[in-house]
Amino acid sequence: MGTYFEQWKNMHRNELCWCGSGLKYKRCHLDFDERLAGIKVNYRQSKPSHKLIKNDTDIREIKRAAAINNGALDLMGEHIKAGIDTLTLNNLADEYIVKHGGIPACLDYEGFPKSICISINDVVCHGIPSADTILKDGDIVNIDITTIFNGHYADASRMFMIGNVTPEAKQLVEVTQKAMNIGIEAAQPWHFVGDIGAAIVKFVKPYNYSIVTALTGHGVGNDFHEEPYVSHSAKKDTGMLLVPGMVITVEPMINIGKPDVYIDSDDNWTVYTEDGSLSAQWEKTIWITEKGPVVLAE
């Protein structure tokens, strides 16, 4: 596309590459730019801008953020149980992240009052931890954590099943995890973001679950939320072209009932299923490489 071509057409082969690697353009992203410029896109497709392409330093720092984030989620797995309140979990995660040199990205983000999100049963996402919210036997719980390290972000969430969950709830959690992994496998270089959602839709359809469309995955790494939006219900060969150097999240939210959701009018954050049905979500941060997707935060 013309807008993409404008980014690199005037660069000299011996200039330092636009990616910040310190290498000459001819030894870094010249071949990449020529390949990308040669790909034709239609009105349902787009190409990424240079600002979405991470260099080696970015990836190194995102990996360090991811290591802290993964450790915080591991810690949640060690402490989560029936009878614990969600504020205690929040405080444990906050302490761990800060102790290891990170910053909880959620805290004060657009007014969010806590360091992590904890979403239970019919809460789709953005649940606010509270001393009054006590986990009980049979709950399914999503814990979503994002960590900043040296200005770089890693984002992931896991589901936890508390005690004796129903077979219906267990299946939802397991199917959602498989859907995420299938979506990640579809995130191949030089293919389109829509392939992710198309693969998830194909897998989920036989279960008669619904995929939440009001919320999506996203680019991440140098900021909390970047382009592209990553729909989990999309058509193949649509959306932005995935190219090596991009970092995105894949995080399907799947409901037993209908896909409709609403935001709590009291806190303006907590997202519930409209029909009160159970919802599950898993999320990983992945790096698109020439050889395929690489998981960074999980």
Overview in brief:
The protein has 298 residues and is α+β, with helices and mostly antiparallel strands. It is built from 6 helices and 17 strands.
Please characterize this protein's 3D structure.
- By secondary structure, this protein is of the alpha+beta class.
- Helices cover 28% and strands 24% of the residues.
- The chain has helices at residues 2-8, 30-37, 56-79, 86-99, 167-185, 194-204, and strands at 45-46, 103-104, 117-120, 123-125, 140-149, 152-161, 210-211, 217-219, 226-230, 239-240, 247-250, 253-255, 261-263, 271-273, 279-281, 284-289, 292-297.
- Strands 2, 3, 5 and 6 form a four-stranded antiparallel beta sheet that branches. The chain has a three-stranded antiparallel beta sheet with strand order 4-14-13, with no helix packed on it.
- Helix 3 (56-79) packs antiparallel against helix 4 and helix 5 packs antiparallel against helix 6.
- The two termini are 34 Å apart.
